[in-house]
Amino acid sequence: MATDTRQSDEDHRRFARFRPPQAGEGGTMSLLDHIRELRYRIIVSFIAVVITSSVAFVFYRPLVEIVMHPYQQASLAIKAKNPTASLQVVNTGVVAPFVLNMRVAIVAGLIAACPIWLYQVWAFIVPGLLVNEKKWALRFLGSAIPLFLLGSVLGYWVLPKGIALMLNFTPHGMGITNLLDMNAFLALEIRVILLFGVSFLLPVVLVLLNLIHVLSSAQLKAARKWSIFGFFCLGAFVNPSGDPISMCALAIPLSVMYVIAEWICRSNERKRSTDNMGIDKSEFDIQID
User: Fold this and answer.
1) pLDDT 10s digits, 57-81
2) Which label site among 44, 163, 164, 229 has the fewest CB atoms less than 10 Å from its CB?
3) How many CA atoms lie within 13 A of 54 on its CB side?
4) Which residues contact 9 (CB under 8 A, 6 or more apart)?
């Protein structure tokens, strides 16, 4: 029996580096343990993205078709207004096809692995939360995944409109051909999709900051006007065209989610203040025989 116990302790120490450090009472950790846990969360997220990217690498052709769909939609819109417009996509360089393949697979893997790396972000914050607040964090983790995907889809939908608007500035009837480098277009698409997706995580981030007592609803209320102004500036920066429709497609949902997050934070603070008063809610329960 003693031999089995020693063997179990040795196995536990051997694989300790592959486990996150355990938090102490109240979720406290030393600085070194925080660094170790951060390293663990990053490694797990990286492995998840590598696995999903490897799977996406196998489906290279259909993924490239998805990548090219916004450009094809923009081309159809341009040629509907100007049938003589000349548009062409090029892949320059010997290694360009391989680089394109890798970048498409990595982006697809990053999006597919979002449940895992979002969970790792949440798990890194959880030790600082009180026990009765973890359920709230878990609920908003469930909201983070669809919000990220919704933002990514919205960015994908906005992109063709921005491309068409920019390419429509080409003078008509002058024999000018628009050559679009495939990797440059992919970089633009990645920026738009990921920025839209990450931007839609705003309410989750605000609520989590409120749960760990970093941000209050009063601070959110005071910064509301400037935040909304910043959302419109962000919408103008992220979108390739900067047209009002595309800009509002990001700014308006972010403004609405900011107000919702502010309301949730205020409700959470009221509940927290009630719990801190030491009121035993069970005393008010009505027993019906």
Assistant:
1) 988 889 888 888 888 888 888 888 7
2) 229
3) 6
4) none
CA distance 213 to 207: 10
Structure tokens at 273: 């203040």
Work out the end-to-end distance of the chain between its first and last CA atoms, rounded to an integer number of angstroms.
Answer: 53
Residues 6+ apart with CB under 8 A from 155: 192, 193, 194, 195, 196, 197, 238, 250
Distance CA 21, CA 87 (A): 55
Q: What CA–CA distance (Å, rounded) separates 37 from 16? A: 12
Say if CB 268 and CB 210 are below 8 A apart.
yes
Structure tokens belonging to residue 257 = 């989610």
CA nearest to 54, candidates 136, 112, 133, 13: 112
Q: What is the rounded CA–CA span in Å between residue 231 and residue 258?
A: 10
pTM here is: 0.72
Phi, psi at 242, each rounded to 5°: 75, 15
248 beta partners? none
